[in-house]
Amino acid sequence: MKSPQEEPRSRLGRGLAALIGDSGEEGAALVRARGQKRVPIEFLRANPRNPRTVFDEADLEELTASIREKGIIQPILVRTVPGAADAYEIIAGERRWRAAQRAGLHDVPIVTIEADDKQALEIAIIENVQRSNLNALEEALGYDRLAAEFGYSQSDLAKVIGKSRPHVANTLRLLKLPDRTRAFLSSGALSAGHARALLSAADPDALAEKVVAKGLSVRDVEKAVQREAEGGTGARTRPGGKDADTRALEKRLSDRLGLAVEIAHKGEQGEVRIRYTTLEQLDRLVALLGA
Asked: CA-CA distance, 76 to 73, in Å (whole number)?
């Protein structure tokens, strides 16, 4: 049974659809909207809490050209600025606003809603995630802000954003990466898949630079991290030596699973150890085992 606190959070993402251009009718009931109107473009200001900080230049130019020809089709979502006349803070649509300025528009369509800081941040993250506008690091920082400032658990975040809990957990883990690797991720030089694989590397920055310089794939990174892990345990597991059949079986299993496999015999008994470096690898293993 859902708690009273959970219900508005889980419905916000669905209700927001009516306000950001998808189908649905319950958005105005959840976040009170005041209708659409046009205002001078200088009345709008950027939201300092916008999770999106990187705006691709080529994308902006493309949108600017479209706006010059057709105008802004979808209104910008805003809230009023307390104590300031004719001032609106953008909640969703900053990219459209930036492109409209470049296109020389004098006024823009807006929909004003009543939203506190928490709701405004939720909406900004949901809108950007649904449109895949955030890079993985921006997404992680947005989730982290909701957790730090408003006490959201990973389960809360998953319900609000409309993503799975493992996705939220994996995304938040990216914040553990060192600064150099995070910079590559923010610029788009590394994908989220690369970044997740680098989390288990002994020196993520060094491996990240190699990935960027050589154009390595995610699978290449996973193999490099796996070799590091095997190298770290080899001195402990190989002194007594293993027979050729055991080593061949380890290789066959490793090739089949795409993971490091170690077999340890103890007389008639023994154990098989399978090492994974990302939650995606664990999910793939579970799927292969049919669990």
From this structure: 10
Show the CA angle centred on residue 43, arms to residues 42 and 47, nearest 5°: 100
User: Which among 7, 25, 94, 149 is annotated as catalytic?
Assistant: 94
According to DSSP, the residues that pair with 215 across neighbouring strands are: none
Q: What is the distance between the alpha carbons of residues 110 and 39, in angstroms, rounded to a whole number?
A: 7
Name the residue ranges covered by the structural domains of the chain.
6-175, 179-289
Cβ atoms of residues 90 and 57 within 8 Å: no
In tens, the pLDDT along 71-128 reads 888 889 899 888 788 899 998 888 889 999 999 999 999 999 888 888 888 788 777 7
Closest CA to 189 of 168, 167, 210, 169: 210
Active site residue 262: no
Q: How far apart are CA 267 and CA 283, in angstroms?
A: 32
Rounded to whole angstroms, the Cα distance separating 132 from 135 reads 8
Nearest-angstrom CA–CA distance, 219 and 180: 21
Helix (H), strand (E) at residue 236: helix 218-237
Three-state secondary-structure class, residue 88: strand
**Rounded CA separation 262/251 (Å):** 9
CATH code assigned to 6-175: 3.90.1530.10
Is pTM, for the whole model, over 0.85?
Answer: no
Angle between helices 117-130 and 136-150 (to 10 degrees): 160
